[in-house]
Amino acid sequence: MGDDHGLLAMLVHEQFHWLEEDRSEAIDAAMAEFGTMFPDAPSGGPQGARDQSSTYLHLVVCDLEYQAMTLLVGRERAREIMSGQTHYMWIYDQVLNNPAIRQVNERHGFVVD
Questions:
Q1: pLDDT in the model for residue 3
Q2: Reported pTM
Q3: Cα 95 to Cα 105: distance, rounded to the nearest angstrom
Q4: SS3 49
């Protein structure tokens, strides 16, 4: 069952990438805020995404993933799945432990109801 939840998280994550096309202006605005907040955000390796811009994008995508997984499997299980990832580790840590990430995303309309 735990593996199924991990696969579900992966599917949910990938589906939120569609927002890049549908909500590009809001994505760009959120990413700009993250760039100001985290000018030295990691890129590459297990901590960040492909490059710094992708790291900022993933602060949106991974927070949406967390919101959705919380609705689907509960907060505790969602945190367990995300904190156990071996990629995007800095990004997931920010999503799980830095309330400013959610505040930025909410300000730009990235909320899962």
A1: 79
A2: 0.95
A3: 10
A4: strand
